[in-house]
Design a protein that fits this description.
The chain is α/β, with parallel strands linked by helices. It folds into two domains: 151 residues, Alpha/beta knot; 75 residues, Trp Operon Repressor, Chain A (Orthogonal Bundle), CATH 1.10.1270.20. The chain is 36% helix and 15% strand. The protein is elongated. 23% of the residues are buried.
Length: 250
C-alpha cells in the first residue's frame, strides 16, 4: 500500500512517521512518499500561489505546479492512484471510510493551503474529498495524518494485540457503539475503586458490564449511533431493555 502526500510542508510529517506504534506500518506495509509542489514550480521564487480572481483576502494554490507535481507522483506509481483532497465539503472521515482505505492500494493525498486550490485543478484531477468535521484547519496536513494513522493501525502486525482494534469505538465488532470505560492499577485511586464487575474474574459478568457501559455511553453522548445500530438490527432484546430503563437513558 502506498500513499503519496502532496504538501507545501513535508517536514511536518517527519516526526509523525517516526514515532508511536504506527511507525511499524510506515516501515512495513505502508509506503509514504512526500512531494512538495514548489519543486515543480517555475521561476526564481518557485511560486505556487497567486491572488484570487474577483478579489478577496488570501491566496489560492495554482493549478500548474500541482499538475506537474501530480504527474511526477503518478509516474512513479505502478498504477494511477485516486487523488484525495481534504476539504470542508468532503465526506466525513468515519470508521467505515477508514476501513475501505485500509484494504486498498493507497492514494495521492493532496493537502491544500491558503484560501484553497484552483477549482479547475480540483475538477480535473480530484477523485475523492474528505473532511474531519465542521471546522476549518490551516491546511490538509493534519487530516492527511489522521487518515494515515487510522489506516496504519488497522494493518496486521502494527498493534501489539492483533485484536485490539476490534474493540475500538465505531467498530462493527461492537455494533458501531462507543467503547466502554477502562481502568488499571491502583485498584482504588483518590478514594474511587475500580468497578467490582471488572475485579470479579467472571468473564460473562465482565462482558455484560462492558456491553451495558457501551450502550449507556453511546446513548448519552452519541444517541444517533444507537438509532443506527437499532435500524441495522444489531441490538438484542436485552440491549433494548437496558436502554428503556433508567440506566440506559433512552
Amino acid at each position: 500500500m502506498r500513499f503519496d502526500v502532496i504538501t507545501l510542508f513535508p517536514e511536518l510529517f517527519g516526526p509523525f512517521l517516526a514515532n508511536g506504534v504506527t511507525r511499524r506500518a510506515y516501515a512495513g506495509p505502508i509506503e509514504v512518499h512526500l512531494w512538495n509542489p514548489r519543486d515543480h514550480a517555475e521561476g526564481n521564487y518557485r511560486r505556487v500561489d497567486d491572488r484570487p480572481f474577483g478579489g478577496g483576502p488570501g491566496m489560492v494554490m495554482m493549478a500548474e505546479p500541482l499538475e506537474r507535481c501530480l504527474a511526477a507522483v503518478q509516474a512513479q506509481r505502478a498504477a494511477p492512484a485516486p487523488v484525495v483532497l481534504f476539504s470542508p465539503i468532503g465526506t466525513p472521515l468515519r470508521h467505515a471510510v477508514v476501513q475501505q482505505w485500509s484494504q486498498g492500494e493507497g492514494a495521492v493525498l493532496l493537502c491544500g493551503r491558503y484560501e484553497g486550490i484552483d477549482q479547475r485543478f480540483i475538477d480535473r484531477y480530484v477523485d475523492v474529498q474528505l473532511s474531519l468535521g465542521d471546522f476549518v484547519l490551516s491546511g490538509g496536513e493534519i487530516p492527511a495524518m489522521a487518515l494515515l494513522d487510522a489506516v496504519a493501525r488497522l494493518q496486521p502486525g502494527v498493534l501489539h494485540d492483533e485484536g485490539s482494534h476490534q474493540f475500538d469505538s465505531f467498530n462493527p465488532a461492537l455494533d458501531g457503539l462507543l467503547d466502554c470505560p477502562h481502568y488499571t492499577r491502583p485498584e482504588v485511586w483518590s478514594g474511587t475503586p475500580v468497578p467490582p464487575e471488572l475485579m470479579s474474574g467472571h468473564h460473562a459478568r465482565i462482558e455484560a458490564w462492558r456491553r451495558a457501559q457501551r450502550l449507556q455511553t453511546t446513548a448519552r453522548h452519541r444517541p444517533e449511533l444507537i438509532e443506527q445500530a437499532r435500524a441495522a438490527g444489531r441490538l438484542t432484546p436485552a440491549d433494548e431493555k437496558l436502554l428503556q430503563s433508567g440506566d440506559g437513558l433512552l
